[in-house]
Amino acid sequence: MSKLILVAGATGKQGRALIEALQPTSDSDDIPFRVLALTRSASSPSAQRLVQERHVQVVEGDLDSPESIRKIYEDAKGSGGIWGVFCVLAFPGLGANADGEERQGKFMADLALEYGVSVYIYSTAERGGEQNDEMEKLSGRAKVLAERHVQALGEKGLPWTILRPGFFLDNYNDFIGSIAVAVLTRGLKKDTKVGVIDAKDIGHVAAAVFKNPDKYKYQILVVIGDVLTMSEQHASYKRATGRTLPSIPGFLAAILLALNKSTQELVQHFENVHTARTTGQHEHFESQLNLSREAYPQMKTVYDWAVEQQKVEGRQENAAGWNKVSLWRLMLGKS
Prior knowledge:
Blueprint: E1 3-8, H1 13-21, E2 33-39, H2 45-51, E3 56-60, H3 66-76, E4 84-88, H4 99-114, E5 119-123, H5 138-154, E6 160-165, E7 167-168, H6 174-187, E8 193-197, H7 199-211, H8 213-216, E9 219-223, E10 226-229, H9 230-241, H10 250-259, H11 261-279, H12 285-295, H13 302-311, H14 327-331
């Protein structure tokens, strides 16, 4: 019998990546994992694309409406109940209030425990270990508090696994991505290294956890494919494509860094993570990184990702805004 997995964030990058990684082989009628793809609107174009997958059922629910999520669990009892949950929550935006993210993260874990879920994966973000947790703000703080709640529920029987992905390489795409490249190139120290990841590889790591849950139960996995300085990232991208990472002029990045507090905090975040990693403060970094690479050894480097980008070049991507920001709002010191 197929194992039923609820994917919160199914239409986002990580959720779609997991759904793709769990696809059954085309030459077999066997479907080891069936996915309940949670979305607020089953009629949205992104949800309708998921409907086409034979192992996916789109379900409507709102994480701010507990009863709508509880109904999904109740309805699933007729199919043997929800066996696993993948929970990734929407980033509220640079500088935005994240109370909702914390509330949703705790609620999803509570419900998974209540209904006896066998595998609970919560995807947050790499932050250089826990030593600076009390200094985290907004979304970072929400992730810390939700993580702590998930781990505490482990003592009551919730079989959790936490994924901490690095900075998404997709954040370098399109015009807003060129702002990200410029800000990090201009703002970071020359020797500061950033851990990066292709979002598709997060899906593969999560799929590996569902396929071998006992190995990863009560474990934290740092999901990073490459750790490079910005100049090294430029070099890798150029080696793969013949050009450097697209970037706005450095003087514009300098203005953004001078005017926008959220961009300053983003740069400082990467400096803190680098320091924690290189000074040994992040004492479990290597072991947590190795766990994710054991789960999926083919994680892409910047070079690998750039080669793949070349193959899909010309495809129109959604340029609505990197992390819900725009150049004009950044210039005004907003986000």
